[in-house]
Amino acid sequence: MYYYRAWSGKEPKCILCEFDDFWLVKYPFDLESYRQFDNDIWRYWCYISVSTNDLGFVACRIFGICVNAASVERLWSCMGFLQTNRQNVRDNSPAANLKTNSEPIEDDSDDEITESRLENDFSEYLQGWAEMLEEEKNAELDEETEEQSNTQIDDVTVNTL
């Protein structure tokens, strides 16, 4: 919702509903539809953006980001993926290494392990976003319910006077 507001300058109307359809893999957010575009994510979301109001717009902006070191670093920084300055400071002395790492350093050059870790991290990240969107949706519903109950109370007090 934040990116929709920032990029369009408008309030989203149905992004949570569209995201729910995406999460539930409802058409056109299904694998069969995606495969029609030869796994070209950009073309797929350009197609989808015509039939969605909000989610397609955000997806096209995200997948339209030019991937180079500066843009990825900026994106990761905005999303909190980069380490803090404290974490970036390294003490290469053997004593510091012994204090912080009691286990031997392993060679993680195996592509399958690295890919599995990345997939796992990305899945956790997406799950966090889904939970955040669900919380926002619930908060909006709570606000609407509260406004409706306040309106009903006001109507009762006006009618009794």
UniProtKB/TrEMBL annotation:
Region of interest (Disordered), ranges: 92-112, 136-161
Biased composition (Polar residues): 92-101, 148-161
Domain of life per record: Eukaryota
Official protein name in the record: HAT C-terminal dimerisation domain-containing protein
Organism whose genome encodes this protein: Rhizophagus irregularis
